[in-house]
Design goal:
Length: about 475
């Protein structure tokens, strides 16, 4: 037993079994998994997360119960468990996660469930990636006294005039060499203040996620016994066939024949700052655009998103697929697409000149990524392929492995902003509120009152 997890209304222990392989992503392939049993996220306040685990290393967490807030009438449960494991071997990778919550009750019994569970398994080898979300279920769900059918994944259930529930929100991202899948078994969204929690609160019950990428094949050699050095950027390919056929909605097509091109070496940085993970999903089938034209980089909501090169920002704004999105054109004419941002930085203006490493915005899940974990969808459109239109893209995966990770970022002082939506005549927002503290009751005669109000939250309140 290595660490006690803070839990309100119960006990929890985290059992560390030991390291099981490489991190979530590396040149040697990768595997990662995470799970938590309960999460309450009120807007402007610290989240409360119970029974949370990540792998590697392999871990199991147990808890006797959960309640938030501590007084009766909020969110409560019986026993909770969560587990995660991840392993990378010479030619394959596996990851698995699960969580289970007994006897769920919200707001004095307005929403109850006898058991909520989530399970995800992912595997990848030289033949490709696959996964399984079986075992995820919501049993005995009752909303305002009425039983609810939970057999349909993604079903949305209205809860009076104050919220709604989503049953088995889930997603999978298969790829040529990897797989990522997630499940949130039961998610409650408050659209109005209720039960002591503010509008905008999200209660997530039973979450599991797993991602894998198979180790790449051995490098080819140019001379016997001599290995070709790894380039700063991948070497140009020879496949010049025109890109793929469009799929009908819901249809999955095999990996298309993708053109390749070389980016000018030097001066590029990884597009997400800090901890993140990604797998090779370029070319996987997609209902609307036919196939996946880029890669998804997963990280925490609000993680800074960076300019990958010196260049010019253009096409800043919203579309239904990409949500808050923008494009960057580097000095050689190559173009890069960023999608699903939660907000923009002051540099995200059409025609703005930026440098590699400048913060353009913040990672999120806007657009058609609303029910997926926060991530950046990123595409590379080389100058030589712009004539092919949207299909003139190359696979970002090996570039991600080559581009250095930025340690220091440049951020122009100012506030993050969101664009206007629809036909609203309201002025452009001046800030994107990430958190807030109520200081209206503080005394101006006490010099220490503001300092205490903005002190770090107690450890027990943090995820």
């Amino acid at each position: 037993m290595r660490k006690l997890l803070p839990v309100v209304g119960g006990f929890a222990v985290l059992l560390i079994v030991g390291s099981m392989g490489a991190g979530a992503q590396s040149a040697a392939g990768g595997a990662s998994a995470r799970a938590y049993a309960m999460r309450v996220a009120p807007p402007g306040l610290a989240e409360s997360v119970s029974t949370s685990v990540e792998a590697p290393p392999e871990a199991v967490a147990l808890s006797g119960g959960f309640s938030y807030p501590s007084e009766a009438g909020g969110v409560a449960s019986g026993a909770l468990t969560a587990s995660a494991s991840a392993r990378v071997e010479r030619t394959s990778a596996t990851a698995e996660s699960s969580s289970e919550v007994q006897a769920v009750s919200l707001f004095g019994g307005e929403v109850t469930a006898s058991k909520v569970s989530a399970h995800v398994r992912a595997t990848a080898d030289a033949k490709g990636g696959s996964g399984d979300l079986g075992g995820s279920a919501v049993e005995g769900l009752v909303v305002l006294g009425q039983g609810v059918d939970t057999s349909s994944a993604g079903a949305r259930v209205a809860i009076g005039d104050w919220g709604y529930a989503i049953v088995l929100a889930q997603g999978t991202t298969p790829g040529q060499r990897g797989f990522r899948g997630f499940v949130t078994a039961l998610e409650i969204h408050l659209t109005a203040d209720h039960g002591g929690l503010p509008a905008g609160t999200v209660v997530s019950i039973g979450f599991a996620e797993a991602a894998v990428a198979a180790p790449p094949p051995p490098e080819k050699t140019t001379n016997p016994g001599k290995t070709t050095p790894e380039p700063t950027t991948p070497a140009p390919g020879t496949n010049k066939k025109k890109g793929g056929t469009k799929a009908k909605r819901g249809e999955t097509l095999p990996l298309p024949s993708i053109p390749e091109a070389e980016l000018t070496p030097g001066g590029y940085v990884f597009p997400v700052y800090g901890a993140s993970s990604f797998t090779d999903t370029f070319g996987a089938g997609r209902a609307v655009v036919g196939w996946h034209h880029g890669e998804d980089i997963f990280a925490s909501l609000g993680t800074p998103v960076l300019a990958v090169a010196d260049g010019t920002v253009f096409s800043v704004g919203w579309n239904d697929l990409g949500g808050n999105r923008l494009w960057l054109r580097d000095e050689q004419g190559n173009e890069f697409y960023y999608a699903h941002l939660s907000a923009y930085s002051p540099l995200a203006r059409n025609g703005a000149r930026v440098h590699a490493g400048d913060v353009l915005g913040f990672l999120g899940n806007t657009g058609d990524a609303e029910f997926t974990p926060p991530h950046l969808h990123f595409e590379i459109h080389p100058l030589a392929l712009l004539g092919l239109g949207y299909d003139g893209v190359i696979a970002p995966y090996t570039y991600f492995l080559a581009w250095r990770r930025l340690e220091d970022i440049r951020f122009v002082p100012g506030l993050a902003w969101l664009p206007q939506f629809g036909r609203s005549t309201a002025p452009e927002p001046g800030a994107y509120l990430l958190s807030a503290r109520d200081i209206s009751s503080l005394s101006g005669l006490d010099p220490g009152s503001l300092r205490r109000a903005f002190a770090a939250a107690p450890a027990a309140a943090l995820p």
